[in-house]
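Title: Comparing notes on inverse folding

I've been comparing how different people in this forum approach sequence design from structure. To keep things fair, I'm posting one structure and asking everyone to reply with a full sequence. Here's the target:
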């Protein structure tokens, strides 16, 4: 199996030492260098271009002096599009995760992740796959669901509650004093906004998200 070359970027020497020690136990992964801030990482990658020694994967801390991780990821992604960068952070806030991924990160790991997840993330990045820490994935999923619910108008939420109760389009129309055609249109828009394929899925979604309750 071809070796995967890895470069470590973190402003804490103990974190870098711990990562290096673990990765040295992986037969297919080799650590070829490290930096203690984003600026140093950017400068190092530029120097490595001349020597044709760009690593396959970079593990990038997000909170660092001189140049933060998100900014460094953005620069590296623009200058070295083939470089795979995995964000490392102690935080799983949605905004931070989105910022790293939008900057070009190929994955997001929490620093309290199991060591095995680090090697899985590195191998996934090498295969052009995005790897998210399970906790981060849950945060993003909740954020997406909240965004979907927010996209519904007040009337659409009313209709969704009635859909979840098993009401037909005509029954929804009678309850809300609208035409059956309008009720049908609302249901169609709800299904589309939620990214679903049927009114049954919409009903189950509403119950799961607490928008409607099972009577």
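Reply #1:
Here's my take.
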């Amino acid at each position: 199996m071809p070796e995967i070359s890895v470069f470590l970027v973190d402003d804490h020497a103990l974190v870098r030492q711990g990562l290096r020690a673990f990765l040295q136990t992986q037969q297919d992964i080799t650590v070829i260098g490290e930096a203690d801030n984003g600026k140093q990482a950017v400068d190092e990658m530029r120097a490595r271009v001349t020597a044709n020694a760009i690593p396959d994967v970079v593990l990038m801390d997000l909170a660092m002096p001189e140049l933060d991780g998100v900014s460094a990821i953005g620069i590296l992604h623009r200058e070295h599009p083939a470089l795979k960068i995995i964000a490392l952070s102690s935080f799983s806030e949605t905004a931070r995760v989105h910022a790293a991924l939008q900057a070009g990160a190929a994955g997001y790991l929490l620093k309290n992740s199991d060591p095995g997840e680090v090697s899985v993330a590195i191998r996934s990045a090498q295969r052009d796959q995005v790897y998210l820490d399970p906790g981060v994935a849950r945060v993003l999923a909740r954020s997406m669901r909240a965004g979907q619910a927010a996209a519904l108008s007040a009337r659409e939420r009313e209709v969704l509650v009635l859909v979840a109760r098993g009401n037909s389009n005509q029954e929804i129309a009678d309850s809300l004093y609208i035409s059956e055609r309008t009720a049908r249109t609302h249901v169609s828009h709800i299904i589309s906004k939620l990214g679903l394929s049927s009114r049954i899925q919409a009903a189950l979604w509403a119950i799961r998200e607490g928008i409607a309750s099972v009577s």
